[in-house]
Specification:
0% strand; Transcription Elongation Factor S-II, Chain A; 345 residues; single chain; mainly alpha
């Protein structure tokens, strides 16, 4: 009689077979276990070797593009840098002469590029709104010999601000002293600036007179009439001592230049006293006009003393005839009447 408790052969033998799978039947050859194929470790390395030159080429191309952009922008960047220094100095109440001279040197080395940038600051839709900076740009142009700089100075002479115009008058006379071909254009400009109505600002007009003083006597002779107009109209400032002194200086320097013009025209010109009172000066101007007509020098329409006095009388009559603005009520208005209060309600 067999003891079932000790017969564990079938159970023990079947355990491994169950764990490892069904045992092969008798006469069946089990498959041979081959080696597991390893991953190709060289593939990523090859991809990296192929990608490294591509990245290098891309970096080189980007550096070349950046270099080209910088080379293209560099001249304008330098101009903007020095203009920024000029602007900063003006904000502090001074002119950065180092920045101004640096712009002059840049414009001499690259007139086309730098003068194009300065033109944008001076005129056009992108013109700088700060007149002092535009005046500083005009001073830069004064030191540049290129013909395009002279063109920009002529543009500056029509700027809306008198400081810019005055610098342009001074710069043009400085630049064109030795340029016989273009000095005629300067004389034409000064005829307009010094004549009537001409330059309204006395400081700018004084700079124009000083610019005319740099011209030769033959050219000053052509300015006799507008110089006489400037001498005649330099007045005012009785209640403003600095302005009165400025007008006296303008009369004095204009009278000196008129003496040169008269000497070039002929002898016998009446004297002009810049320190005389207005009535005496008007008598001197009338005598000088008579001498000019006798030379003869024609006085263009609108430039004579009689025409100027007639215009002044007409302007005074217009002011007197124009209705005066309504005065404010002298007494405060009281509250509205009861009827009006009811209507308002």
């Amino acid at each position: 009689m067999t003891d079932r408790g000790t017969d564990t052969t079938d159970g023990d033998a079947s355990a491994p077979a169950d764990a490892a799978g069904a045992a092969p039947s008798q006469g069946e050859v089990p498959p041979k276990a081959g080696p597991v194929p390893a991953a190709d470790a060289s593939a990523p390395a090859e991809d990296e070797e192929r990608s490294d030159p591509q990245l290098l080429v891309l970096v080189v191309v980007l550096w070349l593009v950046a270099g080209l952009i910088l080379a293209y922008k560099w001249p304008r960047m330098r101009v903007d840098w020095h203009l920024g220094n000029l602007r900063q100095g003006l904000n502090l109440g001074q002119v950065d002469e180092e920045a101004r001279q640096a712009l002059v040197e840049l414009a001499r080395a690259d007139p086309e590029g730098v003068l194009g940038a300065l033109r944008e600051e001076l005129v056009g839709p992108l013109a700088n709104q700060d007149p002092l900076l535009r005046a500083a740009v005009v001073r830069v142009l004064q030191g540049v010999e290129a013909a395009a700089a002279v063109d920009l100075l002529f543009i500056g002479s029509s700027d809306p601000h008198p400081v810019v115009r005055g610098n342009a008058y001074d710069g043009l006379s400085t630049r064109l002293v030795g340029d016989a071909e273009r000095r005629g254009h300067l004389v034409e400009l000064l005829v307009q600036v010094l004549g009537r109505p001409g330059e309204p600002d006395p400081v700018a007009r004084l700079l124009a007179v000083r610019g005319a003083a740099r011209l030769a006597d033959a050219e000053v002779k052509a300015l006799a009439v507008p110089l006489l107009v400037t001498f005649r109209d330099a007045r005012g400032g009785e209640d403003d001592p600095p302005r009165a002194e400025l007008q006296r200086t303008l009369r004095t320097e204009t009278a000196q230049l008129l003496a040169r013009a008269a000497a070039a025209l002929g002898a016998g010109a009446p004297a002009l006293d810049p320190a005389a009172d207005r009535e005496a000066r008007l008598g001197q101007v009338r005598a000088f006009e008579a001498w000019l007509r006798a030379v003869p020098v024609e006085l263009p329409p609108g430039q004579s003393l009689d025409e100027a006095l007639a215009d002044e009388r007409a302007a005074a009559a217009d002011r007197a005839a124009s209705p005066a603005p309504p005065d404010a009520p002298s007494t405060p208005q009281g509250p509205p009447a009861p009827e009006e209060q009811k209507e308002e309600r």
